[in-house]
Specification:
This protein has helices at residues 8-11, 25-46, 51-78, 82-103, 106-117, 126-141, 148-178, 194-206, 218-227, 231-242, 258-274, 280-284, 293-326, 336-348, 352-355, 361-376, 462-479, 501-507, 513-519, 531-539, 545-562, 572-583, 599-602, 612-630, 635-646, 654-662, 669-675, 678-681, and strands at 181-183, 212-214, 379-382, 394-400, 403-413, 423-428, 431-432, 438-439, 442-449. The protein is α+β, with helices and mostly antiparallel strands. The strands form three sheets. A five-stranded mixed beta sheet has the order 3-4-5-9-6, with helices on both faces. The chain has a two-stranded antiparallel ribbon with strand order 1-2. A two-stranded antiparallel sheet has the order 7-8. Among the domains are: 3-174, Neurolysin, domain 3 (Orthogonal Bundle), CATH 1.10.1370; 179-242, no CATH class.
Length: 682
């Protein structure tokens, strides 16, 4: 299908990143917010209680604001600059104030209640009704019933929280960028694979430095921790990484997030109590699948109890191996990844670096597209003539039966001024406009992998392939929705502890021999992953899985229990140490400041919600077990998942959608089996 033949609604409204004028950002956002407010006041004054005259009109105005703000917010994450950051951050209090204005607008709340109790409600679609019900709930969670003094307090809290979140993120990015280690001593780099050395050399050359440059970006940091023979080098990198944005980070502590964390927790506690909750965790789950704090804690602690004995045995195995084979006793925190990799190679004769040549970028990316094609009859087509924010970015469309269903930008490589990690974000959402057109969904898919080096293509580790699949799982949840009410379209309106279901679900195909046959292929010869290597990789799949499980549970319990606290004198370091004494099997050194870089909960949407990863993993493992029973590329099973999960967005409760696909409530057994937690499975 040529670009000329694509329906206008699918491609005409894409952002023009190259034309964004930093000098006018604040004015543009201010103007768009005012238009939204004027629309709300007009809607309320007119008193028409129909869905379209209230929700439809406000949605149109909010969409205009989103089209201005979305590319600005995104560019600040991927091609930040001092001037862009300044303009971006100046908009945050304006947007926070607008969010509070909407959430506490008594007249607008009354309009939604009128829809909810009116005659038209019965004839609305399921998605329209769910959007109204969610809105009424969210009005109450935004303090619409508070008195004027309390409303003003709530508004002030929201503005401060928005500012603190941005500062936390900025500090973490600056701290990550601040560290650079350059060495010309090749002996110091003994053990590092050729791919890591080539990337470090290329980075040094790009900065007009001799030798090799290492940073705290994961593609640079991880190979050192995994392969470098020098314990001193590992220690240097480890200390720099785990003290990012802490009091140990720089001499003047200018990136220190400690006070930001304390202020954030205090404000969240105030907000929750203002709204009548005992603590922030209780407030958080009011809009989630989980129902009580006890339910979440019982879930996490039960998994921890089942996983810990196996995790302890896994740690002991590393320690015994390090002593017997290398004469190394009393392992330090920066030693475990290194000796674990040595043990893995000894047991399975396989490493990420041996696998890397078999996962060149195009093979992995187009292998992913082939998986989607076989599962959902979706074709992924690249489009060249699209305005982008960086030359590395590619743009693709999803086609089904000759129709465009959605599109996405793909930004794979790490670079300066780009936030670390991987994520999917909305560019625009699927929604029906008041004039009857349908705006199609567009996503941003962002990773931080090593770029091509020399004449070699970008070569991914298998873990990076899993990351790519994970984010694309979020992407197709957003892009394949058939819901046309923006509040419950795609990932919108999906309970936060269920939103990871499609992303974790798609990861499973990275381990299936039938899929690996076309996901992998040697970058020079095109040969598929040899059966011997495949067998070893699959045998090593659950290597130290209990340790990995426990690490995620440690983060989840820290997050959830931290947000249950109400003391004004909370010592966060002492608190995480207490959680670790209960859960962790490797005790970090006293200088470790993991929490100062925990962006998920202090600069993202996972506050008192990090448990969602494990909660949703139960759903995703059980969902995949149906494919194991019926065939991993069974088109009927794929169509069922598409229609019952991906296309439905947030239009129904997650449990209702899961049961429609699986025929029953979820079981924890597939998660335990997939993770190789033997004691738990027994």
């Amino acid at each position: 299908m040529s670009v000329d033949n694509i329906p206008q609604s699918s491609i005409s409204n894409l952002p023009t990143f190259s034309e964004i004028n930093i000098d006018t950002i604040v004015d543009d956002v201010t103007s768009a917010i005012q238009h939204c407010k004027d629309t709300i006041e007009s809607v309320v004054a007119e008193g028409d209680s129909s869905f379209n005259s209230i929700v439809g009109r406000i949605d149109e105005a909010d969409d205009e604001l989103s089209r201005i703000w979305s590319p600005i917010r995104h560019m600040n994450s991927v091609v930040s600059s001092d001037t862009l950051r300044e303009a971006h951050d100046a908009c945050l209090p304006l947007l926070s104030e607008y969010g509070t204005y909407v959430g506490q607008h008594k007249g607008l709340f009354t309009c939604y209640q009128t829809i909810q109790t009116g005659e038209e409600y019965k004839s609305l679609t399921q998605a329209q009704r769910k959007s109204v019900d969610n809105a009424v709930r969210d009005f109450k969670l935004s303090g619409v019933d508070l008195d004027q003094e309390a409303k003003a307090q709530y508004a002030e809290i929201q503005t401060k929280l928005s500012s603190l979140s941005s500062t936390f993120s900025n500090n973490l990015l600056d701290a990550t960028m601040h560290f650079k280690y350059v060495t010309e001593d090749e002996e110091e780099l003994s053990g590092l694979p050729e791919s890591a050395l080539a990337a470090a050399k290329q980075l040094a050359e790009s900065k007009n430095k001799k030798g090799f440059m290492f940073t705290l970006d994961i593609p640079s940091y991880l190979p050192v921790m995994t392969y470098a023979d020098s314990s001193e080098l590992r220690e240097r990198m480890y200390k720099a990484y785990v003290t990012r944005a802490s009091e140990f980070d720089t001499d003047d502590g200018k990136f220190d997030n400690t006070a930001i964390i304390k202020g954030t927790l205090a404000l969240r506690k105030q907000k929750a109590m203002l709204l009548g909750f005992d603590n922030y965790s209780e407030y958080s789950i009011a809009s989630k699948m989980a129902e009580t704090n006890d339910q979440v804690l019982e879930f996490l602690n039960a998994l921890a109890d089942k996983s810990k004995p196996q995790a302890q045995a896994e740690v002991k195995e590393i320690e015994v191996f390090a002593e017997q084979e290398f004469g190394k006793t009393e392992l330090q925190a920066w030693d475990f990844s290194y000796f674990a990799e040595k043990l893995k190679q000894a047991k399975y004769s396989i490493s990420d670096e041996q696998l890397r040549p078999y996962f060149p970028e195009d093979k992995a990316v187009f292998g992913l597209f082939e998986v989607i094609s076989r599962l959902y009859n979706i074709d992924v087509v690249e489009v060249e003539q699209v305005d982008k924010w960086h030359e590395d970015v590619r743009f693709f469309e999803l086609h089904k039966n000759g129709q465009v269903r959605g599109a996405f930008y793909l930004d794979l490589y790490a670079r300066e001024k780009k936030r670390g990690g991987a994520w999917m974000d909305e560019c625009q959402v699927r929604r029906k406009t008041l004039d009857g057109n349908v705006n199609l969904p567009v996503a941003y898919l962002t990773c931080n992998f090593n770029r091509p080096v020399g004449d070699k293509p970008a070569l991914f580790t298998h873990d990076e392939v899993i990351t790519l699949f994970h984010e694309f799982g979020h992407g197709i949840h957003h892009m394949l929705t058939q819901i046309e009410v923006s509040a419950v379209s795609g990932i919108n309106g999906v309970a936060w502890d269920a939103v990871e279901l499609p992303s974790q679900f798609l990861e499973n195909w990275c381990w299936q021999p039938e899929a690996l046959a076309f996901i992998s292929g040697h970058y020079e010869t095109g040969d598929p992953l040899p059966k011997e290597m495949l067998d070893k990789m699959l045998a090593a799949k659950n290597f130290q899985s209990a340790m990995q499980m426990l690490r995620q549970l440690e983060f989840s319990l820290f997050d959830y229990e931290l947000h249950m606290q109400t003391s004004d004198e909370l010592d966060v370091q002492a608190f995480i140490d207490k959680i670790r004494s209960r859960v962790a099997v490797i005790k970090p050194p006293s200088f470790n400041r993991f929490q100062n870089g925990f962006g998920h909960i202090f600069a993202g949407g996972y506050a008192a919600g990090y448990y969602s990863y494990k909660w949703a993993e139960v759903l995703s493992s059980d969902a995949f077990s149906r494919f194991e029973e019926e065939g991993i590329f069974n088109p009927d099973t794929g169509a069922d998942f598409l229609h019952n999960i991906l296309e439905m967005g947030g239009s129904k409760e997650p449990m209702e959608l899961f049961k429609a696909f699986r025929g029953r409530e979820p079981s924890i057994d597939p998660l335990l089996r997939h993770a190789g937690i033997k004691a738990a499975a027994a």
